[in-house]
Fold each of these.
Amino acid sequence: MEIKLAFLLFTTLLISMVACENKSQQKATTIPQADNAAYLEKGKKIAGATFTALSGKLQAAMKEGGVANAIQYCNLAAFPLVDSLSKVHHADIRRTSLKVRNLKDAPNADEKTILEAYEKSAQAGKALKPLVREIDEQSVAFYAPIKVNNLCLQCHGKVGETLAEKNHAFIQQFYPEDKAIGYADGDLRGMWSIRFSKGVGNKENNE
């Protein structure tokens, strides 16, 4: 009888400890509303600056030598440019998709979950909004959808239509495992995935 009672008390204590631990974890992973809004703004700022830098360089390369020149630029310079901007903004900046051109852009498990949710919402005709998720006690991740526009179609459109066959053949020389084609204007291309430290008033804002 005493053994059963002791076992019952031990089980009750263990359940209580687990419940308290889960409650503590839930509390720790909740981002206050004010901070969430600030992180969204910071993420948008970083994504906007990166997009402006990339699109400016890409359009210049396209104007100078067409799709072939733009593809070579992307292959050689896009990653170094994003890496340099990551250092400027003290963040880890990525662009990822369910249909990648460069295998380095393949999504991790968390990114794939967000991308699939965006894709599902897009297919249902719902608005796609940026969002923030806590990674750990020190950092957060910002995600935002990237949609296709007419300029993108010259490299990511439908082969034989918006993407010329000769340009598609050239793309395959650099990216033989390319999946990033077949898009139409307004389609969901992928998303920004940007990680940075908590605390909006960090190095980026103090320098």
Amino acid sequence: MHLGFHIYDIGFQSPNVEAAKPMVYVTTLLLILIVLAMTSTAIYLRNKMRQQHSVVDV
């Protein structure tokens, strides 16, 4: 099950919503951290490849 559905399932389908709140917060934080890590990696790779394949005009 992916993290988005996991957040929905625990947060809204759990019989005891108050007990599930910490798990929802941790799962949300994990999802945000994964997205930030993947975005940062993509930006780093884009900049590295841009430097390697740049054409210098003389």
Amino acid sequence: MTETVPFEVYAIRYATVERRPAENFIGGDPHESAARMDYFVWLARRASQAVVIDTGFNEAAARRRRRQFLRSPVEGLRLLDVDAASVQDVILTHLHYDHVGNFDLFPRARFHLQDRELAYATGRYMATEFFAAAYELDEVVGMVRNVYGGRVRFHDGDAQIAPGLTVHLVGGHTKGLQVVRVWTRLGWLVLASDASHYAANMDAERPFPVVADITQMVDGWQRLRELASEPRYIIPGHDPVVMQRYPAPTRALEGIAVRLDAEPAG
């Protein structure tokens, strides 16, 4: 990989919510103090190439689901000099509302998605509220329309999006959850998305309660460790610690975005 130009990688925080531990860990004690969940989209960039990972949700969805909306993910990208209207590749780790909302704000993008995710989101399990609750029907239908419009690039397992940027099917949280492996100046970094919402889900082996297959989720943690150059280069999908451990790219972006291709603090 020494001949491949490394990517810069950023996490952009766009929303947050207070949570009870029982909502974050199977077996969590509901009497413990509340914990925050942060919501991110991610950017992998080198030279003129910008790949966006997930597209977040909008203010209307935040109101419906009682989340604190901080800014549009598109505005966060703009602060990093990325115009959503010009982005050509968007990787969707899965189709839950907080990862696929705003897809309509990327009019030129190809959407990279696992075959199994769309099959799951339109299949028999969506008749069960437990599995359907994290999906938005209009967004799933919108993605089906993008399929008919030729704008979805399907993947069946591991696939290369660009040199130094690959996706890997892990399942668990949903049937078609994929994680993203990125070549950086530090080596291989892995954006875990919801394969591990919090670092503690994986580190303490305490699964997140929203799950399609717990055994796949547990196997996915091992896959994350295999894909990353070092365990510390695995980035959890919703953990507030991300904003604490990584530096902001500029002082103006403090609290908004952090650069992930940097050694984490602590």
